[in-house]
Amino acid sequence: MPFELGMTIAWAETAQSKHYWIVSNQNNIGFKNRLVDLNGYDHFVHKGTVGGVFQALLDAFDKPDVSITEMKQIYRKLRQFGVELQQTYRWNNLFQPSAFRRLVIAAAKIKSAIENPIM
After folding, report:
1. Average pLDDT, stretch 91-103?
2. What residues have CB less than 8 Å from 20, skipping those under 6 apart?
3. Where would I find the beta strands (DSSP E) of the chain?
4. pLDDT tens-place string over residues 11-57
5. In 3D, which of 23, 25, 24, 21 has the Cα closest to residue 13?
6. Cα(46)–Cα(27) distance, integer angstroms
7. What average pLDDT is seen over the chain?
8. pLDDT attached to residue 95
9. What is the DSSP letter of 25?
């Protein structure tokens, strides 16, 4: 993965784009030794947990209008939807384009339903 990260950073630094990159890892053990050129940049550690990933994303992208509680609600519902997709279509991989598109659409609908509950 260091090659791909290097390409991403090079693109962001040299291209006339609004490209943004972050580095996230499960822990800091050995991380700084493997990628010493990035010691001046923030590393977002997620500790291998869903909550840790959400906290790392909030730290990286600074979205004050989003809470970890809301992210976990969306995650739980989306995870169940993913299980149903796999059972319905007999998919082994939710990262194939057709499955992933359905997950993206479902996530947006779930988020909207949480933000605007019907009373």
Report:
1. 94
2. 12
3. 23-25, 43-45
4. 888 877 777 788 888 887 766 666 666 777 777 888 889 999 999 89
5. 21
6. 7
7. 86
8. 92
9. E
Per the model's pLDDT, the better-predicted residue between 86 and 24 turns out to be 86
The vertex-99 CA angle with 20 and 79, nearest 5°, equals 80
Q: How many other C-beta atoms are found inside a 10 Å radius of the C-beta of residue 44?
A: 17
The answer to whether 79 touches 106, Cβ cutoff 8 Å, is: no
Distance (Å, whole) CA 9 – CA 86: 35
Amino acid at 107: A
46: nearest Cα among 23, 27, 64, 31: 27
Which residue bears the tokens 């993965």?
1
Token reading at 48: 């291998």
- Residues 6 or more apart from 84 whose CB is under 8 A from it? none
Prediction pTM value: 0.73
Q: Rg of the chain over CA atoms, in angstroms?
A: 17
Residues, the chain, total? 119
